[in-house]
């Protein structure tokens, strides 16, 4: 099988000699990034660096006040007897309880059945048959922005779908993966839907705000108007950057022939005629609607076990166990479609498809071991707490005008986010300092929360410290063995930086016009 070259009449990939300066800079970024060791070894090297830094900071006696507890916290040296003891005895737990590990494994069991039955390929072909190669970019971008509602499961579901969608219109499936990833990762906080993360952000902001005003309450809907508009603005921005910048380098995302052939073979349901396929898709849709209806009915009673305390829906069993419901959903629709098309001929085929799915992500599992041990070390040292508190104190001392202060706050948090990539963890650390500080300067807590969303989102897609970043690298390597950190950064960097600028400008316009950020949440 010859190597496919992903070019279209609408999006022509230029020859290397035709590339501009910007593209050459990105090529340099890619080469530099890919010159780094394999991500598995890189995280062990970074662990050694963190250990040395923690030892130096520990000797300096640096202490900060943890805003969440009020206790003085210092950096703990990783080069100590306690560190060796705690990290060795906790190594197994750190790996087994590593957040993305369980989600990826569980959801992949269902996704593998839906994918290998040919359902994803058939849906993509049917839905995208009338779209141009440019239109599919906006479609995948919108799907990624809205898909963040699925929490971390969105990456497992939408990154492979992005590959299928781009392949269906003759574009590089690797670029489809990258568009899906950056849409979820960098624009996910612009989701117009109320997700569990919104409730968490609001509760942390409320606790922080009540340090200044005891009656202040921040709600999960307080950024709804702003995030709804932002979702569509950012999706359009992603599509524009991909077409104007990334498409010029798309020819560099050519999969290895054998891996592309294997991927195509997994999703093509050979021998399915058009009538059978259409009937199977319709009945699969009925099954999907039936499943959704059952879940909704199960949640109707206020005392339903799928609800949370007091009948809550956002903070509920359903949302906490969303990965389980997604696994069952994809298992159901994949099985129904496979049986109707003859792709699944017996019960043995289902566990075989599941096993194939797990085998396909084996490189991710190896990578997750290194990442989980590094993050356990980084968390143990308390470096993240010190960085967050010192950064917040710096902003407080500046005393700049609101828009200048907002810009500095966004820059500082975006830089912090390169190291502390958990949005909820970083918000928990900085909110108790930032929210009261800005309230005293006349800024509503909902505004501070919106500023944090902007700063926290965009740089997630360019830092190897992010577990979702390394997850995407792993997916790229399923199509191209030499794809690495540099490959992904060189494509996400332009998107992330332009998105950050666009989102900041949108917020400034929103602020100057005085438009409420959400129901009952003034911007100033």
Automatic annotation (TrEMBL):
Pfam families: ABG_transport (PF03806). Keywords: Membrane, Transmembrane, Transmembrane helix. Residues 1-21 are annotated as: Disordered. The chain crosses the membrane at residues 40-57, 95-114, 135-166, 224-242, 283-301, 321-340, 361-380, 400-419, 426-444, 450-476, 488-513. Residues 1-11 have a biased composition (Polar residues). This is Aminobenzoyl-glutamate transporter. The gene is abgT.
């Amino acid at each position: 099988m010859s190597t496919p070259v992903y070019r279209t009449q609408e999006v022509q990939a230029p020859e290397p000699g035709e590339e501009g300066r910007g593209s050459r800079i990105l090529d340099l970024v890619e080469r530099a990034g890919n010159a780094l060791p394999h991500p598995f070894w890189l995280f062990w090297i970074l662990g050694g660096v963190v250990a040395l830094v923690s030892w130096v900071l520990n000797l300096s006696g640096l202490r900060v006040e943890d805003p969440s507890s009020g206790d003085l916290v210092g950096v703990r040296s990783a080069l100590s007897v306690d560190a060796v003891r705690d990290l060795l005895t906790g190594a197994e737990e750190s790996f087994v309880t590593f957040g993305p590990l369980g989600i990826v494994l569980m959801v992949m069991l269902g996704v593998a059945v839906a994918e290998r039955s040919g359902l994803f390929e058939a849906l993509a072909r049917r839905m995208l048959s009338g779209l141009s190669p440019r239109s599919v970019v906006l479609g995948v971008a919108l799907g990624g922005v809205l898909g963040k509602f699925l929490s971390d499961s969105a990456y497992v579901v939408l990154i492979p779908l992005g590959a299928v969608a781009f392949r269906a219109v003759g574009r590089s499936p690797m670029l489809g993966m990258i568009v899906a990833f950056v849409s979820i990762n960098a624009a996910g906080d612009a989701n117009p839907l109320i997700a569990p993360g919104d409730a968490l952000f609001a509760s942390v902001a409320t606790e922080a705000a009540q340090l200044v005003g005891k009656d202040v309450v921040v709600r999960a809907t307080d950024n709804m108007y702003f995030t709804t508009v932002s979702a569509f603005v950012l999706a359009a921005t992603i599509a524009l950057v991909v077409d104007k910048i990334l498409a010029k380098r798309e020819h560099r995302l050519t999969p290895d022939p054998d891996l592309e052939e294997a991927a195509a073979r997994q999703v093509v349901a050979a021998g399915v005629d058009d009538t059978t396929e259409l009937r199977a898709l319709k009945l699969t849709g009925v099954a999907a609607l039936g499943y959704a209806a059952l879940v909704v009915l199960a949640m109707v009673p206020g005392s339903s076990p799928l609800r949370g305390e007091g009948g809550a829906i956002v903070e509920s069993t359903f949302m906490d166990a969303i990965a389980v419901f997604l696994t069952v959903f994809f298992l159901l629709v994949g099985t129904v479609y496979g049986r109707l098309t003859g792709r699944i001929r017996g019960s043995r085929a289902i566990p075989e498809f599941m096993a194939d799915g797990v085998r396909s992500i084996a490189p991710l599992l190896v990578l997750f071991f290194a990442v989980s041990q590094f993050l356990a070390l980084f968390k143990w040292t308390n470096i993240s707490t010190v960085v967050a508190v010192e950064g917040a104190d710096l902003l407080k001392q500046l005393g700049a005008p609101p828009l200048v202060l907002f810009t500095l706050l966004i820059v500082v948090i975006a830089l912090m986010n390169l190291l502390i990539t958990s949005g909820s963890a970083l918000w928990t650390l900085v909110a108790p300092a930032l929210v009261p500080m800005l309230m005293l300067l006349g800024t509503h807590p909902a505004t501070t929360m919106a500023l944090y969303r902007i700063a926290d989102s965009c740089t997630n897609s360019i830092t190897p410290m992010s577990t979702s970043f390394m997850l995407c690298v792993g997916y790229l390597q399923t199509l191209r063995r030499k794809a690495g950190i540099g490959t992904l950064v060189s494509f996400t960097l332009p998107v992330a930086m332009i998105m950050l600028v666009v989102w900041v400008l949108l917020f400034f316009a929103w602020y100057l016009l005085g438009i409420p950020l959400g129901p009952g949440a003034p911007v100033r």
